[in-house]
Every structure is written in C-alpha cells, then in structure tokens.
Amino acid sequence: ATRKSTEDAWHEFRDRCSNKALVLMPVQTGELREYAVSNSLFVLNLNKKNGTSSGGTNTALMDEVLAWLEPGASVLGWESASGEDVFVSRISAAGKLMLAADWSYNHTLTSAGARSHSPALAKVLNPRDIDYTKPAHYVSFFLSDGDNYQWVMNGFDEEFYSEPSVPSVKFSFGLCSQALEQLAPVHEDHLLASQQVPGNLMECFGGGYFYVDNYASKSDRASGLRLLAERTASAMRAHRLKVLHLIAEDVDSEASMEAYRAFAEANDQLEGIVVIQYSPYNGGGGKVLWVTNKEGYDIPVVTAGYSLWRGSDAPGQGSPQEIGVRMKTLADGLTHDLVCVHAWITFDGRKGASAALACLNAAGKTFEAVPVQELVWRIRMAERREQTLKYLSTIR
C-alpha cells in the first residue's frame, strides 16, 4: 500500500465506491475514515504532501472524480493547505457541495436514525403581527459561516448560539439544516429547540458551501440549479425556515440572479434571501435585488451593507464601533441596514451577538434591531406594498 498513490487507488477501486458523496481530506488524516468506510466513499487528498502543495497536487484527478459523482453530491472534509478558490470553486462549478467536516468525528454514529427522523421546527414570526407604521431605522445582524458543519457540531452552540446578547440584539443565525438532518439529526433538534427569540434562523447556503453564480457552470447548470433549489425548498419547508442565506462571488451578476430566481420559483414559502459576497462580504453594499416566485410575488434579495471584520480597509468593513458610527453617519434617507458579523474575529473580547450589540449602541437610539425575517417583511412592505398587503390577507 505504501507504494500506491491516490490515483492508483482511484483506477483500481473506483468501481467499489459509491458516487453519492466524496471525502476530501489532507493525506495522513483520519477524521472521516470511518464514515468513508461505512458508506463506501472514495477518499481524495488534493495535495500529495500534507500541509503543502509543493509536492504536487491531484487537481486533475479531483476534476475526474467530481465529474463521476452524482449531481448535487456532497464533498465532506476540507483542504486547509490550499486556498478556497482552488477546491471550493472547482467543486461548486462541478455542481457539487463542499461541506466543512474536517474537525468533526463519529459521523456514522451521529447520523444514525436520520432516515426515520421527524424534522424539528424553527420559531418564526407572523408577518401580520409587525407594526409597519412604527418609525425607526431598522437593522439586522447575522453571523457568518453557518454552513460550517464541523463548527456547528463543536464550539458554535456554547460560544455563539446560546450567548446572552442574542435576544437583546435579535440576532440571526444561518444553519446547515440539510447537512445536520443527514449527519446529526439529534444535534439539529437540540439547536432548533434551544433557539433564542426574538431572533431568526435561516437556511445557510442550501446543503453545503458553493457560490451561486458559478454553481454547476462546468456541468448542466439548469438542471443542477433546479435540483439544488428543490432540495433546499424541501428542507426549509420541513423545518419551517423562511429566509435563505446565500453566498456569491459577484452578488448582482446575471448568473447570481439566475440562481436567486431558481430558489424563489422552487419555494412558495420563501419570504426573502440574504446574500453575502465572497470578498468582501458586504460587496453588495446593501442593495436590494428582486426576483419573482411562481405565485407572482416579488421576493427581496438583500445584500449585506456592512461587515464586522478586522484587518480590512474595504468600505463598510470594520470594528463594531467603526461600523456603528458609519451607519449613523450614512443613515439619512435609508430605512434599513443589514450587517454580517464575521464568526472568526473577536473585538475587544466581543464576538457574535455581543459584537453586534456594541455596534448597535454606537449607531445610536434611532436604530432598532430586528430579526432578519422582520427586516425582509419591512422591505417588502416599503417597496412592494400593494402585493404585500394582498399576500398578508391570505395567511392566518
């Protein structure tokens, strides 16, 4: 075996492997080995040497394996020694879903019972209960990286999800509900049962990490988008999730608009979409785009206007104090703001909801925090009032 390469293994054993998923992990790592064995999955290392690409890569082999996988298949793991553009973008373009699962363990055990599991329900607000006449400058804060399965299984709950500032700032989270439903249904039930309100949960990215504007661009994009949108719609309806959180390389490109339309057309219960740009997260500048669902209702696609992010001089990115002051300065004529809080940065001991609260305090008393779902409905009422009133009259 020591004389065999990954490419040798592929040519010799591919006919014994399932093409329903793939494990992508650095060579000489074992976190996902038991899951690969129990599900007959091929294991691929992108870099031939652990921790560096200097020894060569299996990029061409990865492309061959990705083409062999069934449409919409999950690629579990990560490759920390390579930039995301090297593997996530390629996986996305092939119409597959990257799932960060490199630090989570015992997936065969945690996924037990997934097929017979009854999905838990998120807590949502009734849009008819919102006071749309109340004057304020509304702002919503949400946490980045909810697609990161291994983090959601580890430090996410204690460090962010159950943080005491969540209700006061009406903080929102994206959750990888489709991955959790398959790999850890019991933990998903726990998260939904312990949801703090007021605050919202969103479906994060639709089953894995991909970019909506390049998804399936190297395969059958139309059918790939349709399958992805239908799966996501089914998962969101099953868990009563009303807002979809997405990421794009270019948030307002025609390719991104094509994807937004696919998600809206597949889900008549989708109330709005929140989207960040790969770099910078607030690349959309707070712009609201619109797509129409099959019922004829316009669905807002809200881009992040700001990002709590340290170490960047990009406009709209900065510390809670800096962004709060900037929001206050630019508030004239605006009715809402959407702020993405980067999960991996701590600001003077604050992160997540506590960082958002510091930002809100810096913005001033004219700003009122609302959950993302409420922000979506306020935008719909402000910019599509007649059809929004018509829709609200049809729901209980």
Care to describe what's here?
With 396 residues, the protein is of the alpha/beta class. Helix content is 36%, strand content 20%. It contains 16 helices and 17 strands. It has helices at residues 6-13, 33-38, 59-68, 84-93, 107-110, 149-152, 156-161, 166-169, 177-183, 185-193, 221-239, 254-266, 320-329, 353-363, 372-383, 385-392, and strands at 18-24, 41-44, 47-49, 52-57, 74-77, 97-100, 137-143, 172-175, 200-204, 243-248, 272-277, 288-292, 298-303, 306-308, 317-318, 336-341, 367-369. The strands form 4 sheets. A 6-stranded mixed beta sheet has the order 8-9-10-11-13-12, sandwiched between helices. Strands 15-14-16-7-17 form a 5-stranded parallel beta sheet, sandwiched between helices. A 4-stranded parallel beta sheet has the order 2-1-5-6. α9 crosses α10. The mean pLDDT is 95.
- Strand percent estimate: 15-25%
Outline type: globular
The main pleated sheet reads as: 6 strands, mixed
Which structural class best describes the helix and strand composition?
alpha/beta
Mean pLDDT over the full residue set? 95
Rounded to the nearest angstrom, the radius of gyration is 21 Å
Tally of individual helices:
16
Low-confidence stretches: none
How much helix, percentage-wise, in residues?
Answer: 25-40%
Task: Give the N-to-C terminal Cα separation.
Answer: 64 Å
- Strand order of the main beta sheet, please? 8-9-10-11-13-12
Counted beta strands: 17
